[in-house]
Write a structure and sequence with these properties.
387 residues, Purple Acid Phosphatase, chain A, domain 2, 3 domains, six-stranded mixed beta sheet, 11 helices, globular, DNA recombination, hydrolase, exonuclease activity, DNA replication
Length: 387
Amino acid sequence: MRLLHTSDWHLGRSFHRVNMLGAQAGFVEHLVAAVRTHDVDAVVVAGDVYDRAVPPLAAVELFDDALHRLAALGVPTVMISGNHDSARRLGVGAGLIQRAGIHLRTDPAACGTPVVLRDAFGDVAFYGLPYLEPALVKDTFGVERAGHEPVLAAAMDQVRADLAARAPGTRSVVLAHAFVTGGRASDSERDITVGGVAAVPAGVFDGVDYVALGHLHGCQTLTERVRYSGSPLPYSFSEADHRKSMWLVDLGADGSLTAERLDCPVPRPLARLRGTLEELLADPGLARHEQAWVEATLTDPVRPADPMARLSERFPHTLSLVFAPDRAPDDPAVSYARRLAGRTDQQIAEDFVAHVRGVGPDGREQAVLRDAVDAVRADHAVREVAP
């Protein structure tokens, strides 16, 4: 069976001040063409179809168009909700839509109930694990601790139990939206840390033939059978070196697997430039970036006059301007930035306690801070899924 694995469309999202709806429509066109050209048997979309729980009307219309075009091809499509989607809204009408071959899997309680498709060699069971917000689903899965690993492990126990009851030789595909250990993050994914932990080990998914992951925006291979497709379009300048693509996966009769990357169309290249304003304006080596979307980091010791206007004369698609003056290593601004670099919310809160009090929090206080951070995240998740 030949699968096309994609994820993280984020319909309705902009790139800085650029409306990406046209580029997203171009991707849908490309997706439909790829399904037809490569004789795809099934499409899997691993979450974050929309960029927010209540998407703009234009994004909903584009999604509707994508569903109609995929259904018209007669190729089954399996989709799950991600942490940006409202599972309840995305799942509206799932029963009716399923009759057209579009299978929306947004209910955590249905993780162990697969979509079963057949090819010449037998059944392939597709299990949809939508984004599982630990605080909201721990009771559904009967786990005591609200963490990503416990709830995903419980969901996968249901998957393996169902698979064990099926005919020998049944092949299996899992769609999941999660941060799996070994994956490389970018600046455009929403933080899903719970209890100080964001990632789960890839071993949670042992026992299935292919795991189609969503959430991280870079296409990457964690193991031969566990892969992220990444987002089809860039949503932050941290993705400047990404090659945006989808996975074309062939699942053999015996569960053997081969995978090939299919490139997605690039609306405009990204460039991250750094230097003084005069250097950026004068360097002939930067001519290749003049039509790119540009993030410029200015290192001038004193902020120059009208930097955006002057940069835009040479780089008309400059979208982001960052000021990072070259400073002495002992400059307070430098040391503060270094202290914050790469720090989690939990670590920043603990650092603040140490700064104010002169001594960092003890174990009990760390637990209180962790619970407070998790409570804020859980409250945000509830607000996102509320009707």
